[in-house]
Amino acid sequence: MEEGKAKKKRERTTGGEEEEEEEGEIFQRDDAMKKRKKKTRKSDDDFDDDDANAAAYSDIYGPNASATFHFLEEHRHRVHLQKLSDILASVACQSSGINCDYGRFTNKPLVKKIAVVLAPGLEHKMYVDTFGALHCKNMKRIFRNRIEGGKGGSQCVATKSMNPTAKGATHARSILYNGGWASGAETKKKREAKYKNDEAAQAYRLAKEQAKAAVKEEGEGEAEAGDDDNNGALKKTAKNGGKNNKTSTTTTNNERVTTETKLLQFLRDAPRKLSVKSASLTAEDMADMRYPLPTLIKKKEKAEVKEVLKLPEGGFVCTQPAGMGVANAEYPEIVAMDCEMVTIETGLALARCSVVDDCGTVIYDKLVLPPTPIVNYNTEFSGITKEQMRNVTTTLEDVQKELLELIPSECVIAGHSLENDLMMLKMCHPNVVDTVQMYPHKRGAPFRNALRFLTERYLRRKIQHEGTHDSVTDARATLELVYLKLIRGETFGNDISENFEDSESLFDHIAKENKTRGGGLENECEVLVFETITNSNNETIGVSGATETYKCVSDDDVTMKMQMSMREAPEDMSLLCFGYLRELEDVLEKHALKEKKKKNKKAKGGDDDDDDSTARKEHFIERIEATQNLDSRVARIWDELPANSLLLVATAVGDSATLRYKQEEKWSRNRKFSETEEVERKKQGLQNWTDEEQEALNKRWDATQFGVALCAIKPVLEEGEEKRPLVPAAAWTNSQKERV
Length: 740
Hints:
Blueprint (H helix, E strand, L loop, with lengths): L1 H22 L7 H9 L4 H18 L6 E5 L6 E2 L4 H8 L10 E4 L6 E6 L5 H5 L1 H6 L1 H6 L10 E2 L1 E5 L7 H10 L6 H14 L1 H19 L5 H17 L5 H25 L6 H4 L3 H6 L6 E7 L2 E7 L6 E2 L15 E11 L2 E10 L5 E6 L6 E3 L2 H4 L13 H11 L5 E4 L2 H8 L1 E2 L3 E3 H4 L12 H9 L11 H18 L6 H7 L4 H12 L7 E8 L15 E5 L2 H14 L5 E7 L2 H21 L8 H29 L5 E5 L5 H14 L5 H10 L6 H14 L1 E8 L20 H6 L1
Helix pairs in contact: 10-12, 11-12, 12-20, 19-20, 23-25, 24-25, 24-26, 26-28
């Protein structure tokens, strides 16, 4: 009998492989998909178990029972985006007891298949308005209210994102990492295991230990001894009326400086995951961050026309290649720079410039005399006092000359918001690393983390506290942050990625639940992730725990593979398919970038050949077409789902790209400008961000942060009921395009 079963199994497997060959063109690049389909083929005993399970469900819920889901009326107007994962967890991990407190299920055990579509770019207001009625007809049909004639519940809800300027991959991680299953103990355990096994983390820890040991051997004393000496000195100072305060502070600073420089020496030689060159800003990044850059112009010399670099006006200089011109000194691979500014009548002016080498040793540190009298020393922020500046004679031109001799163009300059320092120095330099870019703000650009925050968080020490500022200290802290990033790797220090890496994702939790429930197809839930990866948008979701992750060439490819996965899966198999569709998001990003370049061109006095009204029409038409394509893809996925399967569509945010670029524009226009920049702005007729523009930005923020979430469970067709056909997107005629 066993031989007969084996023979039947071989025949069924062979027949299945022939079917795969017929349909295999779609999955030529996805061998893992073929393996997964083979894995799900079942023996005769499995089919007997299926019949038994089906009979059991039929006895409990009835032969044609349907599961349902709806959002509760009191939560219809707002649900936090990260809470959507509770819907998925309550179905995929039913034994864990996770509930969805803003929605209600009926007959939930009948749900075996889950399809999730993340498609950023469609805000809630547009979906519920006329725009949605015209261009989202399939989604309106699928997610119509079926609960008590539409009373007491809805299948559409507004979702609020706390980070509306972020891209879709960030929203995916926000949904999949912040649910009710997330355990603080598990997160801590995972973080400790990661740190213990990370060679880069061990290298950084070893460097700190070596630095402390080296300081101790040289007789500088350990930190505890330094604190005791300092406390004694403070008591003595109090008795002597504060006369010895300067000496005690100097001693403590010397101990701290020695430890910092020793640490930087060890960090310089530690193994790295990133090179300095790979971490340097590109020309496009420097332009976006408003670094002073030369421009390429055509200059006619005799009968020839040559392209030459033109420096910004107002006394700017440019660093020279090593061994040429004045740059003849030996130089390290990287230096760190920090400048302090004071306020004069025309704006900010340079007051101090400090540079340390790759070991943290000071190679340049001078006070600078501004061209006009100082109005405000900004001591709270600069550390500069009136007494310090009393006999200063060094001018900006002197500093420029000395730095050009010291730093060639090949040397990498590290800094925090370094574009401000170079702007004050009136200096162009091609190779820079910026800790603003290395450690991005969790809300994305144009928001920036303060240097004191980064130092306290990652270096475990305080700077700039109690009103004390020192450019040398800031430069050393910047250099250590750069080394730490190079040693730990690309994702370290990225608030968006780092917070998720140490947490348990929904997919991790599902895998853990699979082990708890034991083997068997009916007891396991497979998780498949499909995401579009293009040359212009190659950021991946990066969520751990999925059974398989497929990188697709287009949104149609994602849709087709989700359809086939649902079609090929056995009836009683639990399956979660997560699809990330990017077309609408990419269309909005493309037009926002185009608008940004257009404004920059106008600001520089360039001619604009594009008609504003025509460009807006083209943008709106492309947005409509992308929305209709999304609507069609959602309908195709829905039609392929078996009965009692759940479909969740989340758009997360609206036009986040335009909001992001508007915030960058506000930041650039509200900066504190140097005299040269202020003169240039007046020539271009630019002004600071106005109250009217701020009001418009606030409205855009409020609209963008509310996406839409649609959730429904496919019902069992009643006897005699026919399947409703897909509503095709209407083709746009020329007359319709003209009426837009």
